[in-house]
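Lab meeting, action items carried over

1. Structure of the two-component assembly. Owner: GW. Status: complete.
Input record:
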Amino acid sequence: MTLLKATGIKKKFGDQEVLRGIDLEVRRGDVIAVIGPSGSGKTTLLRCLEFLERPDEGLMVFDGQEIDMPTAPKATVAALRKRTAFVFQNYNLFLNRTALGNVTEGLIVARRMPRSQAEEIGRRMLAKVGMSGKENSRPQELSGGQQQRVAIARALAGNPDLILFDEPTSALDPELIGEVLGVMRQLAEEGMTMIVVTHEIGFARNVSNKVLFMEDGLITEMGSSAEFFANPRQERVRSFIRRLENGQGE
Amino acid sequence: MTERVLEILRDSFTKILIPGILVTIPLTVLAFSFALIIAVVVALIQFAKVRGLRQICRFYIWVIRGTPLLVQLYLIFYGLPSLGVVLNAFPCAVLVFAINEGAYCAETMRAALESVPRGQIEAGYCAGMSYLQIMRRIVLPQAFRTAFPPLSNSLIGMVKDTSLAANITVVEMFMTTQRIVARTYEPLALYAEVALIYLIFCTVLTRLQRAGEKRLAHVAQ
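Predicted assembly:
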């Protein structure tokens, strides 16, 4: 079942065309890895889907609702954001909230949930990402991996239909990457729909079911991850994968 | 120091302290409270880039910071009556100090707002919050933490600036001292005494600032 379909997304920064016409279909339960060289527009695409950037052109159909991306009114965007979640490269935990407060903030403020109920959900979500016992820790007291796991718990709290991950492990020390990828793998196994911009080739190969390769603001290759890795059509993709496998990163 | 001077000092201490407590402190507290309100509103308007209002805010800050406080006091207290606007000295002083300090504190608040990482706002949006909710619950508390030391600075500055209100007939500590000097002709001792009282007031504020910073320490960096 299609959850999200986007067609013709374009985005310019000044006269630089960062996205030059992106078509994308996400089915429920999909785990889509978006890979590609730096500057190819991966992050911008993800941010456009969450309306953190406003696309210049593009049409989105989310769960049957048509949204004209350049003109969508605030209320439509706000409603969409309550059904999606976003995990940032640098976590962006609310610095004036505890771990638990980070998870409950959106529930209490945006969804007007009673505090007790929000905290019950918050504790459950923190437990899910292995952060039980850290409810009252401040972001500054947590390691990067722990902060990112709290950020994932925060993303899960609103029971989203789709979670967007923007290079969730790129800011982490190598030894902390595993704990975050582990949580993401678990979510994938539970059937969560996710789009993940990543340089983690292992994750793309083993966890995601689809892979998109982006270059110069376009999706130049896509397919099921099995066929994508088994038989990349373009030499450019082959060499990119090889480089990631050898050195990690661009 | 002669017996006589000591006696004058002992005598005048409470005479100066009382208007300090009854005038200087209320003047400072009232004016600074209003200044903070002005500062937050003006800073938020600029931060959110509200069209039209933003230019008005820049103009306000430009004019206030570009003219002396003393001139502003004279303009409002002695100037406005010729337009038919007559204010009592104390409310006039509160008004001028609030408007004046508001301009400086607005810049402090604006800088503090801009120092809050952009990602905090984006994370708020992604959690489904509205701009105002994000400002109130996430950005302003963090900005206040950053602005607290410079705002304390402004408050301490204002305690001393209230002595300028003597120029528009507000009988605060300094004017009281001047009157005692006129009667006793002991300027050195008495002005030193009033300086000491200002120093005591500011010492208390410095202590409060330190305690406040400790309490705020948990609110982000």
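2. GW to write a short summary for the group page. Key points so far: Chain B has a mean pLDDT of 95. The interface with chain A takes residues 117, 119-120, 122-130, 133, 137-138, 141-142, 145, 218-221 of chain B (CB under 8 Å).
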